Amino acid sequence: MNQLLEELRxxxxxxxxxxxxxxxxxxxxxxxxxxxxxxxxxSYESETRIFVQLDDVLAEQIGIGANARERDIDRxxxxxxxxxxxxxxxxxxxxxxxxxxxxxxxxxxxxLEKDIKVVSQGENIFEISAVSxxxxxxxxxxxxxxxxxxxxxxxxxxxxxxxxxxGEMADSIEFLNEQLASREADLASAxxxxxxxxxxxxxxxxxxxxxxxxxxxxxxxxxxxxSDLAAAQAALAAIDGQLASTPRTIVIPGSGGTQSTLAQxxxxxxxxxxxxxxxxxxxxxxxxxxxxxxxxxxxxxxSGGGGMPNPAFxxxxxxxxxxxxxxxSLQSRAAALSAEIASINASQARExxxxxxxxxxxxxxxxxRTQYDELLQDRxxxxxxxxxxxxxxxxxxxxxxxxxxxxTPAAPNRPLLLLAVLIVGLGAGTGTAFVLSKxxxxxxxxxxxxxxxxxxxxxxxxxxxxEAGRELRARRLKYFAAGLGGLGMLFVVLMGVEIVxxxxxx
Length: 506
Known about the structure:
With about 500 residues, the protein is an alpha+beta fold. It has 16 helices and 6 strands.
């Protein structure tokens, strides 16, 4: 701790011993710094806020939602600082008085692009700010120019939302009408080519994809018909089996003992088969044997007095005719489908190039028709949207805060810069004196001398002054205090001038 205090004392002594050099450097740095600060022109900033109304029931109903309008507003915000709009600002303000060549115009637009900011605050509020700090203009003129630039940006924003948007809408509809006319001509030509090709090749209508789909559908239908045909043939075979075991006539009871018994046995056997009993069933085997035995004893069964047509046989015969007709119909349909499949396969194998041409013509036609339908829908939506925005003002806005007239400079912060220059000047002088003391060969205290040489210091001699020396020392101290006070007084004067200038603008 003692060593630290000793080093601090030594540093203060070294600076004090070279105080005139430190004061001179401080004056030089401060004068140069304050001159540079004085040459920096004041910049004045004007701000305004705009509220954009996006809610509209009709616009929401027809599909012009807030998202679409937000995209429009965002687009306007981004293009608000475009070169065309900035050139309009330059020509409509006093900046244009200082522009006479295209190069100067480009420089003015580039500088104005840096000075203007458009910031979105939330969903419905935009803040536009403009800064003016031109050295060839006074503070009052810069403040008025900043306000004029901000007001011109509001006017451009209004034009972009109202007149500009409507003009753009009309141009877009006109462009779509031209595109629709061109697409309509192309579509008519493609349709004529398609009709001519279909007239020459009716079996290849629709292209290869349509032919493949037709072939697949025909094969599926053929499989279904073949399945139905197999079921119908099985049903016909069952009917034939039942007819074979059913007598054509039946004997009226009481007309003859053997014949009556035989008829009853055949009827029982037919009833068993009708119930679905197979020939291996014990009851069917027994009934079959009974019928065979009775037929041996009465060979004339089925004819003779007392007999009448069997209703069961007649009914089965009608069912057989119906099922046989169904089988023949299904066979005819299956043959027709097989012939159709063979024809399709033959067409594909015979004309592969024609099939490819059919596919290309069909594809081109579908593409043109899709493009035409999309353009037609876009035009109608755009036309309806234009009507809604024109009649209902789907996008409305109002100025919340008018462009402010700046009273104080936004930049630079001159009081802070003046104070910073003063601190830097004093620091530069003190630092220079301290560095020079380190480069010298003197020692401020006896302890430093003892540490550097490693020898004990017996004692020190106090510096004494004569009366004339003390008077000279006091006079020099006053001169130094006057120089240091003058530096501080000059800082105070500059601060006062800055305050007066600010109050003058206000």
